[in-house]
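Lab meeting, action items carried over

1. Structure of the two-component assembly. Owner: GW. Status: complete.
Input record:
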Amino acid sequence: DGGITQSPKYLFRKEGQNVTLSCEQNLNHDAMYWYRQDPGQGLRLIYYSQIVNDFQKGDIAEGYSVSREKKESFPLTVTSAQKNPTAFYLCASSFLNTEAFFGQGTRLTVV
Amino acid sequence: GENVEQHPSTLSVQEGDSAVIKCTYSDSASNYFPWYKQELGKGPQLIIDIRSNVGEKKDQRIAVTLNKTAKHFSLHITETQPEDSAVYFCAAQNNNNDMRFGAGTRLTVKP
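Predicted assembly:
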């Protein structure tokens, strides 16, 4: 099946730890995105990538890092520098300037 | 960067009535305007989109209008049904694939 897959669905992190959220797509999409969603709020852009080995910061990139070594994959690392990481994280992908398809999200909780 | 504002944040209508959600954007370079529906615990899904060379687009009970001069666009849902209840997001994207979302509208359709 074609689609975009995020894993894990739920993730728990101890304070001070780095964690990596996985996002994989087999839609041959060029662009990939990471958004953060807090309860009752909209989607805020963390990072996006238009092409392999290239990515740009969004509005809230501080405390996060990404890589785009393969077209299919765009992992997001939440570092210990992110002071309030508990949130719902959404990954999306698209062809250039067209509909974005979203994964089912990863809910990250700091314990 | 782009700033997208969305109103209202909550909207309650009676089944069968119409619902209208409005968005404004700031970046005149934005040229693609999708609308997404998000159900609880899931990723957003596209319901309709419009490009900057079009003023209006309709798909059954859903329509979107765009006023480039005023930099605003609206979602219209007619003959609302309880299954239309969800959170709706507007977004604006430019040719660099930088896609920003509004804060969302929680629509409740009362039977």
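2. GW to write a short summary for the group page. Key points so far: Chain B has a mean pLDDT of 95. DSSP finds no helices and eleven strands in chain B.
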